[in-house]
UniProtKB/TrEMBL annotation:
InterPro entries the UniProt entry points to: PX_dom, PX_dom_sf, RA_dom, SNX27_FERM-like_dom, SNX27_RA
Domain Ras-associating residues, every copy: 93-180
Cited CDD domains: FERM-like_C_SNX27, FERM_F1_SNX27
Organism: Candidula unifasciata
Alphabetical keyword list: Endosome, Lipid-binding, Membrane
Chief place where the protein resides: other
SMART domains for the chain: PX
GO MF terms held by the record: phosphatidylinositol-3-phosphate binding
Top-level taxon of origin: Eukaryota
Annotated membrane topology: Peripheral membrane protein
Protein name from the UniProt record: SNX27 protein
Subcellular localization, as worded in the UniProt entry: Early endosome; Endomembrane system
One GO term (biological process): signal transduction
């Protein structure tokens, strides 16, 4: 049995014959692709060194084949990578998951491959001793445009983990702040671990340009280098973009030409006009949360829809065609939950 790793992640454990079957199936499915050769089959017993060489040869085979996106994402390949190890199809086999923390350290937890996001998050909270502040963090996945989306509680992090085997980083699963209300965040800074993670996430948001630093750039740089977390957060939390989620640009039915960038924060929900390539334009429409009449996900239409009240006019329905409609819905739910804290 060969334990196969890519980018430091354990993907699967497979016998040689399973690779042989995969190779044959892929050649039938993609006859025009010039597949690399599998390491040759040996009938005699292999030494430890020869076994390791063969394992590495099988890893190289997968790396080369999966580098072709259409093959890597094919049903045949995904089933091979995601199926339970050997005869363990019940999902009870233990695997190690690497979770990237805001300070760029890794948290490694042992979980069952069938554990959902809630179960994996509980394991992370336990390992990091974050029980007191667990309500304000959750697991996210790094996806396109340097964007991170919150996992749904029922999603399976191990499946997401292995589907991203070709990425250069050690993991695509992160621990991040899940909180919009600044006054509540200020209360968390008395917890040493929370303070550290809030600080490094703020640094990352500044580096990504999510937070607009204006004339505070050099001040923030000095505070970051001194790792003065409290003063850094005091300065950054009043800048534009802090504690906001900025979605990748996408189409919207209220805009014939071009796209919109949806921005969600505790003060308002904003739609920034942009060109189809994401280049920002001047127009920004701002919706007060009290004016949002209803919202829902349309899974068939792949959109997030919300209806808002207009003074002296009928309410208007807006459809945002984003692949992250579930995350957008989660953000709306969270905003309204947090608003109840203040009442």
């Amino acid at each position: 049995v060969f334990n196969i790793y890519m980018a430091g992640r354990h993907l699967c454990s497979r016998r040689y014959r399973e690779f042989d079957t995969l190779h044959a199936n892929l050649k039938r499915e993609f006859p025009d692709f010039n597949f690399p050769r599998l390491p040759g089959k040996k009938l005699f017993t292999l030494s430890e060194q020869q076994l390791d060489q063969r394992r590495r040869g099988l890893e190289l085979y997968l790396e080369k084949v999966c580098a072709v996106r259409v093959i890597g994402e094919s049903e045949t390949m995904q089933e091979f990578l995601a199926a339970g190890d050997l005869d363990e199809a019940d999902g009870s086999s233990e695997v190690e998951l690497k979770i990237l923390l805001p300070d760029k350290n890794l948290c490694i937890v042992s979980v069952c491959r069938s554990d959902n996001a809630d179960a994996v998050f509980k394991a992370v909270v336990s390992k990091l001793h974050l029980e007191d502040v667990a309500d304000y963090f959750y697991l996210f996945e790094t996806v396109e445009y340097n964007f991170e989306r919150k996992l749904l509680p029922q999603e399976l992090p191990h499946n997401i983990y292995i589907q991203n085997y070709s990425t250069a980083t050690a993991t695509c699963i992160l621990l991040k702040k899940w909180l919009f209300t600044i006054s509540r965040e200020m209360m968390l800074t008395s917890n040493a671990a929370a303070l550290k993670y809030l600080f490094w996430q703020a640094v990352d948001d500044v580096n990504k340009g999510i937070v607009k630093t204006g004339d505070k750039l050099y001040e923030l740089k000095a505070l970051r280098e001194a790792e003065n977390a409290l003063e850094y957060l005091k300065t950054v939390r009043y800048l534009e973009g802090f504690s906001e989620v900025v979605f990748p640009h996408c189409a919207c039915d209220s805009r014939r030409d071009g796209h919109v960038v949806a921005i969600i924060g505790i003060e308002a929900f904003k739609l920034q006009a942009c060109k189809e390539d994401g280049t920002p334009e001047a127009q920004v429409i701002e919706f007060n949360w009290k004016d949002v009449k209803s919202y829902q996900v349309d899974e068939e239409g792949m959109s997030f829809n919300f209806e808002y009240n207009r003074q002296g006019k009928k309410p208007r329905l807006v459809k945002i065609f984003t692949p992250y409609f579930n995350f957008m819905n989660d953000c709306f739910d969270r905003i309204y939950d947090e608003q109840q804290w203040e009442t």
